[in-house]
Amino acid sequence: MLSTKLPKIITKQLPGPKANIILSERKKYVPNSVGCIYPVVIENSEGAIIQDPDGNLFLDWVGGVGVLNVGHTNPRVVEAVKKQSEKYLHGMFNIVTHKGYTKLAQKLAEIAPVKKNEEVKVFFANSGAEVNENAIKIAKVYTKRPNVIVFSGAFHGRTLLTMTMTSKKAYAKGTGPLADGIFRADFPNLYHLPKGIKEEDAIEYYLARINQIFEEESAADQVAAIVLEPVQGEGGFIPAPLKWVEAVRKICDENGILLIADEVQSGFARTGRMFASNYWQEAGFTPDILTVAKSIAGGLPLGGVIARKEIMDSVPKGVIGGTFGGNAVACAAALEVLEIIKDEDLITKAQKIGTRCKKEFLEWKTKYPVIGDVRGWGAMLGIEFVEDKKTKEPATKFVSDLIQLCVSKGLIIENAGAHGNVIRFLAPLVITEDQLNVGLTILEESIQELSVSKIS
Questions:
Q1: Source organism's superkingdom (predicted)?
Q2: Could you tell me the domains of the chain?
Q3: What are 344-369's pLDDT values in tens digits?
C-alpha cells in the first residue's frame, strides 16, 4: 500500500523526465502568477505519500496546505464520494434541498464552539475566502455597521474583500483600489515584541493597538466584527495568546462587535482539538462566528460559516448563497471526514504527533543557532529560522534552500511568515510512525547540512 511507503527518490534528478513534461505544459498554459517552487507532479497519493509519474515517492508535510488532515485519498472518503456520485452530483441548494447539506449543518452546529443562547445555523460555500467574505457580509447585516478590524500577519483569502483583510500585500499587487472599511491592528507575536515592550506588558500593549483604531480610524460603534485566526497560518503559525483573545472578546461584548474566528487552516483536529477555538471555549469564552474550510471535506472544495440563529437569520434572502455551495459530493465527503476523525481518534493523534515533533524541534533549537523559535498547538507547528538569535533577522534564504534540499530527499515542506522564514508542519494526521521518523530525520539532516554550509 502506498500509504505505508517511505519517501524514495529514484530518478537521477528532479523533476524526472515524465514529470518534467507535465511541468513544461504547466509553464506553457498556466499563468506564472499561480506560483509553484516544487519539482513535484502528483500521479497517485495515499495517506501522507505522493507518487509522481516517474515513481518517486514524497512524504507530504504540507497536506494541500492543511486540507488533508485525514490523508490523501482516504479510502472511506473515496467510497463516500463514489456512493454519492451514483445518486446525484449537484442540485443547487437554493433550488432543491439535499439531506447531505442539512445533515452536515446539523453535525457542525452541534460541535462548533460558538457563542450561543439558541439554535446554531450553518451556511456552506466553496472555500476559505468565500466563507470569510460571507462571514463579513453576515456580520455587517446583523450589526448594521460598515467596518471590520483585522490583524497584522493575517491571511483570509484572495477575493477583493479578503485580499484587503489579508496582511501581506504581495498577494494584492496591482489590484487596487482595495475594499474600504478594513482596519488593521497588531497581532500579538510574543517572539517579536516591539523594542521596549516586556512580555508581561505585551497583552496590554496589543489591546491598546485595538483601542487606538477606535480613537483614530473607526469608532467602536461603527465596527461590525473583529476577525482573527486562533493560530495564524500564513502569518507564521503564531497562536493567539488566550489572555489576549479573552480581552478581545470582552471588547467585543462591551461594544456590540462580533468576534469571528477564522479556522480555515486550524480546524478539524489539526491543533489537538476539533477546532482551535475549543481552547477558547475551555478558557470560558467563544467566538460569535466560526469559519471553516480546507480539511472539512478531505480534499473536496467546501467551506462553512457557523453562527447562532439570531445572527444568521438577520440576513435577507438572496444576500448569501451560490451555485456550488454545499455541493452534494463535497458534503458526503465532509460527513465521512467527521466520522473518520471520531473513529480514528485523530484529535488524540494530533496531540501525540505535536508532542513528539515539538520535543524534537525544541531540541534542535538548542543545537542549531539558525532556529529562533518553535511554536504552535497540536500538530500545527512552526519553526522560525533566524540569521542571529539576538537580532532575530529572518533567515529567508536558508528556509528557501531548506525547502529545496528536503524535497530533493523526498520530503515536502512549506514556508510561512511575512519574510518566508518559518517552516510550517501540516502533515496528514494519518501519517505512520515510520514516516514521521523518516521525515524528522530528513529535516534535521538538511538543517545540519545547510548550517555547516552557512558557517563555511
A1: Bacteria
A2: 2-60+345-455 (3.90.1150.10), 79-343 (3.40.640.10)
A3: 999 999 999 999 999 999 999 999 99
